[in-house]
């Protein structure tokens, strides 16, 4: 590589996923940074290739064919900086190809510090294999144990990458924490020295010397600030930073080919989820708005949000549309997936289809039924991660109804199941069913998969990231109007008047239980006058209160979702199937 310095005019972004690798070329066009081209290739991080750079070079060769521009030299190395014969001025990379960290958490399940730890870890790419606790609860959702022998056995069987030891506020309880420390130490002694997990202590700061006496002699111990230093005061940052760094060290940096990828990159290679979060935060700051983004990937589902200027991130490393699709069946009943289908299917067939999807990860749905099953699974994955996020919503002015989504000005969907949906109506319906937004929200797709990569671009060239995000990243589906409330099927929930820019107007009565699409093309705006009936609220916090606003158009226009909030599900399966079919028809699918 050539390391001569010059201004960054062109940027190559490499997005290395678990199933696909993408190469994205950004360059100046008429004085603005724009997406020039992007290509992709099947991932090669797994056997038989065992080298992520094989797929990177395949994607770059394809990019060269498409653009007639040379990115690599004759030795297969990146040409940096760019010149008249090829190359680029900067390279950034994101990856989601790493397996998550496997953890055992030691803490009291009923204790506030355990809840704080779970919230902190939810923003990290981890799987919790079990919990050591003095109050093991079968309903906790984890494999738990509360006796010394069981605690030791749990660690030995799980063979985790790390043990997170928490408990007590600073100056608080000591005995349960020290007992857990002894169990961890004994378990480590029973393991081969090179296989012992690292221990991160984020509990009562006063106990650090005693914990170090027990654990320090047998395995590596990292003591950080208490995740709950005092009652009501959470401190998740140090634990998240320590786990993120551990993930980088023992997962990302050990990916075959990662060293070469990192040597090409002009900045630190980011986990895809962190790049996604950076972009959501940028959009929120840019407009001073609430933004929610959900990315349904092949091996991970990520949800990032900014609500009342408070950022939130949740990562589900146990869910995804390819490798992890069958894990959904461990968390949800088949009936919860079937309720989103317009046709009858027995649970065994559903399980078989999802298992087949997990085996043949590079395939696409072959029939309409296969497609709708995949989309139904995506809805339940989004609802699962949303349940994790709901415990973290800030109690501010945007949270009008604690049991529903806060008010969002912009909602973004990403991942292949959304971006590659055969119709925009299907993509929109997945988001509406799963998230159930309230009030008035813009709806958009990360159709080119640019949001996470642009979060990395911002590290070396914020202006380029901003310009590409504005022009090329998001595909506007339109504006959603979703009244909160319930009523009787067919009764009027909302009356609205749309006044277009040319002076034309349209008045519509929307019955409860329906979806209505009103034309408003991309690049156009309209004034909207909303008059909900007495049982419904259009996001103002008061049922029956009228309001006016200006809305932006999109590929679908104005989507009025008057099906009710929360969205009702019919108890009779045949009635629910009929409803789902009508929803698909209403959305043009």
Explain the overall architecture:
This protein is of the alpha/beta class and 589 residues long. It has three domains: 88 residues, Ubiquitin-like (UB roll), CATH 3.10.20; 150 residues, Response regulator (Rossmann fold), CATH 3.40.50; 315 residues, no CATH class. Helices cover 33% and strands 24% of the residues. It is globular and about 80 Å long. The N terminus is likely disordered.
Q: What is the strand and helix layout of this fold?
A:
Elements: E1 11-16, E2 20-29, E3 32-42, H1 52-67, E4 90-95, E5 101-106, H2 112-121, E6 126-132, E7 144-145, H3 148-158, E8 162-165, H4 175-189, E9 198-201, H5 208-215, E10 221-223, H6 237-250, H7 258-264, E11 270-271, H8 272-287, E12 291-296, E13 301-307, E14 310-316, H9 328-331, H10 334-338, H11 347-359, H12 368-390, E15 410-414, H13 416-419, H14 424-435, E16 439-445, H15 451-460, H16 462-473, E17 475-482, E18 492-500, E19 505-511, E20 514-518, E21 525-532, E22 547-552, E23 557-562, H17 573-586
Parallel strand pairs: 1-4, 4-11, 5-6, 5-8, 6-7, 8-9, 9-10, 12-15, 15-16, 17-23
Antiparallel strand pairs: 1-2, 2-3, 12-13, 13-14, 16-17, 18-19, 18-21, 20-23, 21-22
Rounded to an integer, what's the Rg over CA atoms?
A: 25 Å
Sheet-strand content, in percent, reads: 15-25%
Number of strands: 23
Please give the largest β-sheet.
8 strands, mixed
Q: How many domains make up the 3D coordinates?
A: 3
Low-confidence sequence ranges: 1-6
Helical content stands at: 25-40%
The total count of helices amounts to 17
Shape: globular
- Chain-averaged pLDDT: 93
Strand order of the largest sheet: 14-13-12-15-16-17-23-20
Q: Ends: how far apart? A: 50 Å
* Category by helix and strand content: alpha/beta
């Amino acid at each position: 590589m050539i390391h001569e310095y010059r201004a960054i005019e062109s940027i190559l972004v490499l997005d290395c996923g678990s199933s696909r690798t993408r190469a994205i070329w950004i360059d100046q066009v008429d004085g603005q940074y724009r997406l020039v081209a992007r290509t992709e290739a099947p991932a090669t991080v797994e056997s038989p290739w065992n080298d992520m750079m094989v797929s990177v070079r395949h994607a770059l060769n394809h990019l060269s064919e498409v653009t007639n521009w040379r990115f690599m030299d004759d030795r297969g190395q990146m040409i940096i900086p760019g010149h008249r014969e090829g190359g680029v001025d900067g390279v950034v990379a994101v990856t989601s190809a790493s397996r998550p960290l496997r953890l055992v958490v030691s803490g009291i399940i009923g204790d506030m510090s355990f809840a704080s730890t779970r919230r902190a870890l939810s923003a990290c790419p981890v799987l919790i294999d079990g919990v050591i606790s003095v109050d093991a609860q079968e309903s906790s959702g984890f494999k738990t144990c509360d006796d010394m022998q069981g605690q030791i056995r749990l660690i030995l069987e799980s063979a985790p990458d790390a043990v997170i030891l928490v408990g007590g506020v600073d100056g608080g309880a000591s005995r349960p924490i020290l007992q857990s420390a002894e169990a961890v130490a004994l378990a480590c002694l029973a393991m081969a020295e090179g296989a012992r997990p690292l221990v991160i202590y984020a509990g009562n700061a006063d106990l650090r010397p005693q914990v170090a006496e027990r654990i320090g002699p047998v395995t590596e111990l990292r003591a950080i600030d208490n995740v709950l230093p005092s009652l009501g005061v959470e401190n998740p940052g140090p634990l998240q930073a320590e786990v993120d760094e551990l993930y980088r060290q023992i997962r990302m940096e050990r990916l075959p080919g990662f060293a070469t990828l990192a040597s090409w990159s002009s900045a630190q290679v980011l986990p895809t989820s962190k790049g996604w979060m950076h972009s959501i935060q940028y959009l929120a700051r840019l407009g001073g708005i609430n933004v929610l983004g959900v990315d349904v990937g092949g091996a991970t589902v990520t949800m990032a949000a900014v609500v009342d200027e408070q950022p939130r991130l949740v990562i589900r490393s146990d869910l995804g549309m390819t490798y992890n699709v069958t894990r959904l069946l461990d968390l949800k009943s088949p009936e919860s997936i079937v309720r989103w289908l317009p046709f009858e299917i027995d649970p065994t067939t559903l399980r078989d289809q999802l298992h087949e999807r997990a085996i043949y990860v590079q395939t696409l749905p072959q029939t309409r039924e296969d497609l709708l099953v995949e989309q139904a699974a995506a809805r339940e994955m989004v609802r699962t991660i949303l349940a994790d996020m709901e415990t973290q919503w800030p109690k501010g002015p945007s949270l009008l109804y604690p049991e529903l989504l806060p008010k969002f000005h912009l909602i973004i969907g990403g991942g292949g199941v959304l971006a590659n949906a055969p119709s925009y109506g299907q993509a929109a319906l997945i988001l509406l069913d799963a998230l159930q937004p309230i009030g008035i929200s813009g709806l958009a797709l990360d159709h080119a998969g640019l949001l996470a990569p642009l979060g990395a671009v911002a590290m070396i060239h914020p202006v380029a990231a901003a310009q590409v995000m504005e022009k090329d990243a998001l595909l506007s589906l339109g504006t959603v109007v979703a009244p909160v409330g319930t009523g009787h099927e067919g009764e009027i929930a909302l009356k609205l008047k749309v006044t277009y820019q040319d002076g034309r107007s349209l008045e519509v009565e929307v019955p409860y239980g329906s979806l209505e699409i009103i034309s408003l093309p991309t690049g156009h705006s309209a004034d909207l006058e909303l008059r909900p009936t007495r049982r419904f609220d259009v996001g103002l916090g008061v049922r029956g209160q009228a309001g006016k606003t200006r809305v932006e158009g999109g590929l679908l226009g104005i989507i009025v979702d008057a099906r009710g909030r929360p969205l009702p599900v019919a108890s009779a399966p045949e009635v629910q199937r009929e409803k789902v079919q009508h929803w698909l028809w209403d959305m043009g699918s």
